[in-house]
Amino acid sequence: MSDLPLRVVRGRLLQPHPTEPRFTLVPDALVRIDAAGTFSSVEPAPPDCDIPETWPGAVLLPGFVDAHLHFPQTEILGSASGPLLPWLQTSVFPEESRFGDRSYAERVAATFCGAMLRQGTTLAGIYSSSHPIATEVLFEELDRRGLRALTGVTWMNRGAPPALLRGTGEALAATESLVERWDGRDGRLRVCVTPRFALSCDAEMLRAAGEVAGRHGLWVQTHLSENPDELKFTAEAYPGASDYLAIYEDFGLVNERSILAHCIHLSDGEWARLAARGAVVAHCPDSNFFLGSGCMPLARALGEGVRVALGTDVGAGRTFSLRRVAASAYDASLVVGAPVAPEVLLWLATRGGALALGAGDQVGCLAPGYEADLVAIEAPDGLAMTPLIDALLFRHDAGPALATVIRGRVRWGHG
Ligand code: GUN
Ligand code: ZN
Q: Residue 368 — very low, low, confident or very high, per pLDDT cuts 50/70/90?
């Protein structure tokens, strides 16, 4: 980790459009970053420029945004015990139960944040475990590493081993205390109310989650409509609800500050209400393939005006790489017979993610006034934009980022 030796970066840029899912390729740009870590100018390099390329062979993009992943699943990534419900019982809950131990949580938090930075992620929506201590440790490590994140204790009061269960009062108190210490810290960290999913929470708990989010204007994250057995048991647990989304709506958990992971098996009515409420779908196709959950109809979601971001969903997802997830999203879009262009997917993984997670005024564009988050990725020279984006997303043997920069500071790699 070091300050950039020069506050001028030279390189090839993929510049996202601020609001539309497309990019402009700038083959040779000069980027100036001021002492506060903000872009002060971004221009084509003059023909006689004698500043060397900062990362030769790289293309520069805004940092990746991972809209959905689980810190306490870092060490069980790749556990092939799906589908969802047996995987939770067999692989996830025993591992998450270990996070009451501060030193274990510290070790895993270092691995977790390092893995995100290595893959170029600069902003993420993260689930902790249900333990306040692990969540405190996670905030400390995110803060140290300069990352941007929304996170919070996971609320769950049923359907898991006792070590993971918290009463509503405990989850609420833990969340309120995190809000006091961490919410808004350095303009990078936010507390997110995190009811695991309806099967893990009774009605009283979901009600309290909605109330605390409303009281403090907090973001909410949960899971929605991932797996057919989950849908069946959820309908049995909430017999009064008209559909799955209605369970969360009834408790004030669905609005423009809600991130709903998966959304694979929704009805027409649920899609229309998600669009109307401005909620964000975290599309996690690598996880969906690994757990055999199904394919979220991405083209349909975008066509209905639903806000979408991409998530690794580590550790059901097998990678911290948003490039890899974008490739899975492409595969999933072909499976459902409605291909989504790689350029759109790369935009969702960067600028679209920043907008979806409420950081669109701060990050996601390489332009004056935005905070200087960027990632340098190795890519073949001389390619036009479409083959360049294909190379970035679909060459799985490519290595990690050459550098990951947040607010002008190199947080991974060299430069
Ligand atoms: N639904 C409830 N908890 C989880 C989780 O940890 N991962 C996934 N993929 N789905 C969930
Ligand atoms: Zn998840």
A: very high
